[in-house]
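Please decode residue identities from the backbone states below.
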């Protein structure tokens, strides 16, 4: 198992894939018009992932554990598939084209979801567990209202 104390990734109209089987202390990723893929089978201490006009896919396997994570999407697409554990997870979708989807078949201890200015968040918790969930939708943009859908 590998070790990375601090990982910083910036993709601009390109593709970056990360496969973690070990330990990442801090991960900061910015996706601007590209494709970012993360596969977590290990431990991530803190993750900050921002998507602007790109596509981001974060897959957390049953052995994966992320302590603190924040995902922000503005103007495109972020998909999170969780079979492991998120201790603290924040989701923020901004703008009429901002979208975050969460498929949770694992454990999320604290989840905060915020859709702003037409952003959309879909949370599918049909096969998972969420201990604390706070959801907030605010405003509209270009005639599209902000929205949050929760299935459990």
């Amino acid at each position: 198992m590998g070790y990375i104390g601090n990982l910083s990734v910036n993709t601009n109209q390109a593709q970056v894939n990360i496969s973690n089987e070990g330990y990442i202390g801090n991960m900061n990723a910015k996706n601007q018009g590209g494709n970012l893929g993360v596969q977590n089978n290990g431990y991530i201490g803190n993750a900050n992932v921002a998507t602007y006009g790109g596509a981001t896919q974060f897959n957390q396997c049953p052995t994966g554990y992320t302590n603190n994570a924040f995902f922000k999407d503005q103007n495109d697409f972020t998909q999170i598939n969780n079979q492991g554990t998120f201790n603290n997870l924040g989701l923020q979708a901004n703008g009429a084209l901002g979208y975050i989807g969460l498929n949770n078949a694992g454990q999320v201890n604290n989840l905060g979801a915020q859709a702003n200015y037409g952003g959309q968040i879909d949370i599918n918790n049909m096969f998972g567990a969420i201990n604390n969930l706070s959801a907030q939708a605010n405003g509209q943009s270009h005639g599209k209202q902000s929205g949050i859908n929760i299935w459990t």
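Observation: The chain has a mean pLDDT of 97.
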